[in-house]
Design a protein that fits this description.
Layout (H helix, E strand, L loop, with lengths): L2 H8 L2 H22 L3 H21 L3 H25 L15 H21 L14 H8 L4 H27 L1
Length: about 180
């Protein structure tokens, strides 16, 4: 029997899914950092953010997972993609900073990866009993609307004031 198949038979399905999501997040981050094309970099960032959201969901942090998708994927990344797609001649732009220090950075990254892999293998990890999934959004929502209602409302007013200030500043610039 193939040794790789034997290794995968020893690893639980839940661990395999976790490592798949972790690999998606890491490869997306690497694609974002190493891509010379802004569009490819943005789509790699999309894969990385979805990988992180999937990791949050897999670890029973449903609130963080949904927040990750709504705020980062739904807001910031879409805004970035529109900015890239609507900018004329974006593919002709050349970076002003050359790739200085790529070899030392690669050497340091590989050394750090080796150190972390060594620590992960040599650490005597405790095995906890299997836990069932519990929703966290209901308890967070109850806390926001009971215990933390006043700070939540104050934060809402501060954000609203910041938005109004941004609109006023943008209108002044348009008139000038």
């Amino acid at each position: 029997m193939d040794p790789i198949v034997q290794i995968f038979e020893l690893i639980r399905l839940s661990d395999q899914v976790f490592f798949a999501f972790a690999t998606l997040a890491v490869l997306g981050a690497a694609g974002t950092a190493l891509s010379k094309n802004l569009v490819y970099s943005a789509f790699s960032l999309l894969g990385s953010l979805f990988g992180v959201a999937a990791l949050f969901a897999w670890l029973s942090a449903d609130y963080l997972s949904i927040t990750q998708v709504i705020v980062y994927v739904g807001g910031i990344l879409v805004l970035f993609l529109f900015a890239v797609m609507l900018t004329n001649k974006i593919t002709e732009v050349r970076g002003s900073n050359p790739g200085v220090g790529e070899r030392p950075a690669a050497l340091i990254s590989l050394s750090l990866f080796g150190l972390l892999a060594y620590v992960a293998v040599k650490t005597p990890w405790k095995t906890l009993p299997e836990q069932t999934y519990r929703e966290t959004t209901a308890s967070i929502g109850d806390a926001l609307l009971s215990t933390y209602l006043l700070p939540f409302e104050i934060l809402s007013v501060v954000i609203l004031a910041a938005l109004v200030g941004a609109v006023i500043m943008a209108r002044k610039e348009m008139k000038a």
